[in-house]
Design a protein that fits this description.
The structure is a single chain. The chain is about 30% helix and about 30% strand. The chain folds into four domains: about 90 residues, Rossmann fold (3-Layer(aba) Sandwich); about 70 residues, ATP-grasp fold, A domain (Dna Ligase, domain 1, 2-Layer Sandwich); about 120 residues, 2-Layer Sandwich (D-amino Acid Aminotransferase, Chain A, domain 1); about 100 residues, Phosphoribosylglycinamide synthetase, C-terminal domain (Glycinamide Ribonucleotide Synthetase, Chain A, domain 4, Alpha-Beta Complex), CATH 3.90.600. The protein has about 450 residues and is α+β, with helices and mostly antiparallel strands. Helix 7 packs antiparallel against helix 8. Strands 10, 11, 14, 15, 16, 17, 19, 22 and 24 form a nine-stranded antiparallel β-sheet that branches. It has a five-stranded parallel β-sheet with strand order 3-2-1-4-5, sandwiched between helices. The chain binds adenosine monophosphate and glycine. The site of adenosine monophosphate (AMP) has 15 residues, from strand 7 and strand 16.
């Protein structure tokens, strides 16, 4: 079979590799792909001139390449209804419909859904009127708050406000987000450990795949602005088996039932962004897709044929598939342009050294993101340039490999930035023998 994966980031690269592993797959076509996606794997073919949003251009590629299954993995195109449109044209398509993905692209609707189905959420209130929002902030006790645009802004729409003054400034910032910020939420700040739990869903049934832990801020010790994700560990030991059982009973099952009742059965990957607080798990958000960089540490661990899983999802037969994982620990480190996520324009076009050699080190894989290739030379072409993933029997082995490999890579002019503390919580857990729930 021939598969189409739309997109150009590390998540999409990992997804293309997962499909390519299947003996049933001849070719994986990417629109547009990146400088690394078609570098080592002969089954993967890029269409660099066909942009991710160019629906008609992508359909032409599908016809030319005789595509049998389309995977729509990215939030903007899922929100634009690409899944519905491909289905309408008769393609077998993996991903949630536009209506089902409202759970991600409309945070106000999503919170209302969670309340209706009694899912655990922080205190929140939604607004369109800035004056009313400011009045609400002043009526609260001094506290940390989150002000969040209701629409999609590439993961940058949630602003942490340390006090009322910052909350008022954040409310004003919502205007900068255009339509996506017209409606916004003010939320209580949840305190605890954050996790990303992933489940495969076919509209009725679900299977938990794994739990990962992302590191969102650009600098160590959770300092600096939020990014798309600086690095990740999976499986992360943040949740015990008992806590996962509670998540199933209180979140996943009511979610699936609720979405069916709302006439938008959920099919695809469900990403639960949660916080383990002292009062149990609370939902930060749901996303309607794999996380990035979570996909890079989870997809390589799946030993069940990924095409069979995707087909079972599209045919509503997930119950017939046994999802198996290899049991290894993986850690990813995002190699970024210095200045990301603020201003990294000066790094664009700088050469990357050591990448090809690093890829060949034991237990190392590298997924491309903002990267270009000319012959065998690589150049920075975005904020997150690549995601280096190391596997190991333990978090410590994976981490030693990952940072050893990172030390061999450089971007011209000392322009490679990465966090040096990815996975620190799981290292602490390993030494303190605290729960490492195995979700496989
Ligand atoms: P979001 O745009 O909703 O994914 O939020 C981005 C990040 O902001 C999350 O990954 C959390 O780290 C943080 N965040 C969002 N909402 C809350 C909240 N109510 N309490 C604590 N942290 C939050
Ligand atoms: N890892 C964060 C995201 O994919 O939204």
């Amino acid at each position: 079979m021939n598969i189409l994966v739309i997109g150009s980031n590390g998540r999409e690269h990992a997804l293309a590799e997962a499909y390519a592993k299947s003996k049933k797959v001849n070719n994986v076509v990417m629109t547009p792909g990146n400088g690394l996606t078609d570098f080592t794997n002969k089954k993967i073919k890029n269409y660099p001139s066909v942009a991710m949003m160019d629906f008609d251009g992508i359909v032409n590629v599908c016809k030319k390449e005789k595509i049998d299954l389309v995977d729509v993995p990215q939030d903007d195109i899922i929100g634009q209804g690409f899944v519905d449109k491909f289905k309408k044209l008769g393609f077998q398509t993996f991903g949630p419909t536009q209506k089902a993905s409202q759970i991600e692209w409309d945070k106000k609707w999503a919170r209302a859904f969670m309340v209706k189905y009694n899912l655990p959420v922080p205190h929140f209130k939604s607004f369109t009127n800035h004056k009313e929002a400011e009045k609400y902030v002043h009526s609260l006790d001094e506290q940390v708050l989150y002000v969040k645009a209701s629409g999609l802004i590439g993961g940058k729409g949630a602003i942490r406000a340390e006090n009322k003054k910052e909350a008022v400034a954040a409310i004003r910032q919502m205007a900068e987000f255009g339509k996506a910020g017209e409606t916004f939420l003010i939320e209580e700040c949840l305190v605890g450990e954050e996790f990303s739990l992933f489940a495969m869903c076919d509209g009725k049934n679900y299977q938990i795949v794994s739990v990962a832990q992302d590191h969102k801020t650009v600098y160590e010790c959770d300092k600096g602005p939020n990014t798309g994700g600086m690095g990740c560990v999976a499986p992360a030991g943040v949740l015990t088996a008992a806590e996962i059982a509670i998540i199933e009973a209180k979140i996943l099952r009511p979610f699936m039932v609720g979405m069916e009742q709302e006439k938008r059965p959920y099919s695809g990957v469900l990403y639960l962004g949660g916080m383990l607080t002292k009062n149990g798990v609370k939902i930060i958000e749901f996303n309607a897709r794999w996380g990035d960089p979570e996909a890079e540490v989870i997809l390589p661990s799946i030993t069940t044929d990924y095409l069979s899983i995707a087909e079972a999802v599209t045919m509503k037969q997930l119950n017939n598939v046994a999802m198996k994982l290899d049991g290894k620990v993986r850690i990813s480190i995002a190699g970024c342009s210095r200045g990301y996520p603020t201003d990294y324009s000066a790094v664009k076009g700088k050469e990357i050294f050591g990448l090809e050699a690093a890829m060949k080190l034991p237990g190392i894989s590298i997924y491309g993101a903002g990267i270009k290739r000319e012959g065998r030379r690589f150049f920075a072409n975005g904020g997150r340039i690549f995601h280096l993933v190391a596997e190991g029997e333990t978090i410590v082995q994976a981490r030693v490999r990952a940072y050893g490999a990172m030390a061999t890579i450089q971007v011209e002019g000392n322009n490679l930035h990465y966090r040096t503390d990815i996975g620190w919580r799981d290292v602490m857990r390993m030494y303190s023998n605290k729960n490492t729930a195995n979700t496989s």
